[in-house]
Amino acid sequence: QVQLVESGGGLVQAGGSLRLSCAASGRTFSSCHMGWFRQTPGKDREFVAAISWSANTYYADSVKGRFTISRDNTKNTVYLQMNSLKPEDTAVYYCAGDPVKDWGISPPRLADDYDYWGQGTQVTVSS
C-alpha cells in the first residue's frame, strides 16, 4: 500500500504561483506512475498532469506551459509547480499513484486507472 499526502495549497491571486507537494509512504513510490488531478463541486476529477516512473511527463491542454510536474524518488515526493494561476484553476488538487506494470513508460490520464489517492489540498485563485 502507498499512502499519499498533499500539501502546499492555499489562496493566491491570479497570476501568482504555488507549488504542491505529494509525499508518499511505502516502498512502491519509485515504481509508480504519479498524477495530479483536480476537482470542483459537482464535477468529475479532471486530469492535470502525470509523470511516469521514468519521468516522462504529460499535461492537460489547460495547464500546458503553466504547470510542471516533477518527482524526486530519493524523497518519495512528487511536485506540481503551478505558475500563472487563473481563477479557473481553483479546485481541490489530488495526488494519485498507479503501480507500474511491465515497466510501461506512459502514465495513465484517467482517474479510474489510479489505485492510490491522497486526501487533496485546496487551491483557490482569486481575481
Report on this structure:
By secondary structure, the chain is an all-beta fold. It is 0% helix and 50% strand. The strands form 2 sheets. Strands 2, 4, 5, 6, 9, 10 and 11 form a 7-stranded mixed sheet that branches. A hairpin with a 5-residue loop joins strand 5 (46-51) and strand 6. The termini are far apart. The model has no long low-confidence stretch (mean pLDDT 94).
Order of H and E elements = EEEEEEEEEEE
How can the largest sheet be summarized? 7 strands, mixed
Low-confidence stretches: none
Strand content: over 45%
Overall geometry comes to globular
Tally the beta strands.
11
What is the mean predicted local confidence, pLDDT?
94
Helix content: under 10%
Could you tell me how far the N terminus lies from the C terminus, measured between alpha carbons in angstroms?
A: 40 Å
Cα Rg:
14 Å
* Number of discrete helical segments: 0
Structural class: mainly beta
